[in-house]
Amino acid sequence: MANAASGMAVHDDCKLKFQELKSKRIYRYIVFKIEEQQVVVEKLGGPTASYEDFMACFPPNECRYAVYDFDFTTNENCQKSKIFFIAWSPDSSKVRMKMVYASSKDRFKRELDGIQVDMQATDPSEMSLDLVKARAIDQHNNLFQLQTRLPYDYDGNYVFPNY
């Protein structure tokens, strides 16, 4: 389907591979690129791929989109996973390329139902493993605090306060 803002289409394989990453966890990451007026899958990382393997996929002079399934341990010692969407737009890439990727980003992200954390990076340091881990834990803690502050009963039903 074409993106009205940029005229960009999203190849069906992008959504299919993302669903496989999300539900079957057969990929650790997916890197996407815009090619011939559509977003296509460029690279798939298997479930045992490292974060270093993922980082090596980003060209220094070209933009990319990527999703990464990040596993981490919370402060409560629970194993969790967050799906990151990363928009890679290095300063050294061409202005036109940056504009095309920027104008297509939100529409493409909406096609991938299940993104939990959104990041923008212009330099590898802006998406380091430490930063990704901090964002995952921070987002988990914010959600956990929100859930514990709201008045819900044990079945998840909202309980109206008695004033």
From TrEMBL:
GO biological process, one term: actin filament depolymerization
GO MF annotation, one: actin binding
Transmembrane regions listed in the UniProt entry: none
PROSITE patterns: ADF_H
Keyword Transcription among UniProt keywords: no
CDD domains: ADF_cofilin_like (cd11286)
Matches recorded under Pfam families: Cofilin_ADF
Alphabetized UniProt keyword annotations: Actin-binding
InterPro entries (UniProt xref): ADF-H (IPR002108), ADF-H/Gelsolin-like_dom_sf (IPR029006), ADF/Cofilin (IPR017904)
Domain ADF-H: 5-137
Cellular component terms per the entry's GO annotation: actin cytoskeleton
Keyword Hydrolase: no
Family under the similarity heading: Belongs to the actin-binding proteins ADF family.
The protein's name: Actin-depolymerizing factor 12
Organism: Vigna radiata var. radiata (Mung bean)
